[in-house]
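seq as requested:
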Amino acid sequence: MTLGEKLKEIRKRFGLSQEQLAEIMNVSRQAITKWENDGGIPDVSNLQELSKVFGITVDYLLNDENQLPALSMKKTLDRDKYENKISSYTLILKEYYAEPYEIYNLARSKKMTKLEWILDLFTFGIHDNIDGISDLSPYYLVKKDNLKLLVNIKDWVLEVIELPSNTNDKKFSYGNNKFINCGKLKMN
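struct tokens:
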């Protein structure tokens, strides 16, 4: 796989347009087109930014390896662009995941070890409640065709994690967290 093919595949797996990727990278859409068509290579600073944004190494981008790993993306958001934090969540989701994407609200709880579960049982749920209060940021499941993304917006950072296509839509675990689907988000 060429660098251009990898960039195009990564962009599409996150459901980003060339314009959106250009905005994330602070380059022109023409630069993205040129890179994707193998008409040029991003400079070192852009390769480093791509590596940082998508959680992959520069070596991976430049080698001929064909298999793309599971991807993640972090994007620092411009807080001046939004009126307030709570109303910004819907605007951010509309900006990155307009129809035909389906967006679902998720409830998050910590995946507990047996010891934590017993402690939680004897403390009447205080342990789980403390964890719930420590992270009040919203989590979403974004779906389109076979693409499933776990999206979190916290402290003006958009974090997107590609989930396996066979992930259960109703209830699943990722890392140290359990998620329950609370219903489709209305994006009117």
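Residues 85-96 form the longest helix (12 residues).
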